[in-house]
Design a protein that fits this description.
This is Ig-like domain-containing protein. With 222 residues, the protein is mainly beta. It has no helices and 20 strands. Strands 1, 3, 5, 6, 9, 10 and 11 form a seven-stranded mixed sheet that branches. It is elongated and about 80 Å long.
Length: 222
């Protein structure tokens, strides 16, 4: 059984054992790369014996020590900071992570709020009011994720695998025509391998339409 100490009481962090993880909750795209980092301090004459990351499984009350895998997981140091880097995130990487530094063979130090929660999501195209609409209706397509992305995003839309000029999360067609029917997908240009599955928009003719309705595509910036 490992011993976990409460917070040290001191006036100068450079002489204390401290661990601080600024990121408490991270939402990242499947297939992207990600850095999780924690800052730490220790007495000048007592460097940590080890610095380790763990993945916590609260459902079965277990934890798994992470090990470096050059194709997937790497660790690296910057001044008073330890970094955990993921490559090509998958949904299996979702979970809670803890960083600990070892004082001695039986004493460990972790953050007061230790867990960093990682949620790995993918992109999905959502169509409102429906994926099957009638000419003249207003249609909104959204490049959607299951949680708000932590990192900045730069969306781009495709219709039948051809890029559109609009680069926002929402694509709005004020008055849809059959010209806009087809297969839509979206990508985050800042992340590799982040393209969504295709979603088909079907447009049927309105029996009450006596003249052609010219649709206008716009975007909402959020």
């Amino acid at each position: 059984m490992k011993d976990f100490h409460s917070a040290d009481v001191c006036f100068d962090n450079s002489s204390c054992w401290t661990v601080t993880c600024a990121q408490k909750r991270i939402c990242a795209l499947k297939g992207s790369s990600l850095n999780i980092y924690c800052k730490y301090s220790h007495p000048h004459d007592q460097p940590p014996k080890s610095k380790l990351w763990f993945k916590i499984n609260k459902n079965v009350n277990q934890e798994e020590q992470l090990k470096e895998n050059n194709n997937k997981v790497t660790f690296y140091e910057s001044p008073n900071q330890h970094n955990l880097r993921f490559e090509k995130l998958s949904k299996r990487d979702s979970g809670e992570y803890v960083f600990r530094i070892e004082r001695n063979s039986r004493e460990w130090k972790e953050s007061t709020f230790p867990e960093v929660t990682l949620i790995v999501t993918d992109l999905r195209v959502k169509i409102r009011p429906s994926a099957e609409v009638t000419e003249g209706q207003k249609v909104t397509l959204t490049c959607s994720t299951s949680c708000p992305l932590t990192q900045n995003s730069n969306f781009r839309w495709y219709l039948n695998h051809q890029p559109l000029k609009l680069k926002n999360k929402h694509l709005v067609i004020d008055a849809v025509t059959s010209h806009y029917a087809g297969n839509y997908s979206c990508v985050d240009k800042t992340k590799e391998n982040s393209k969504s599955p295709v979603k088909t928009l079907t447009v049927t003719s309105s029996p009450t339409t006596w003249k052609a309705v010219v649709g206008r595509v716009s975007a909402i910036v959020i």
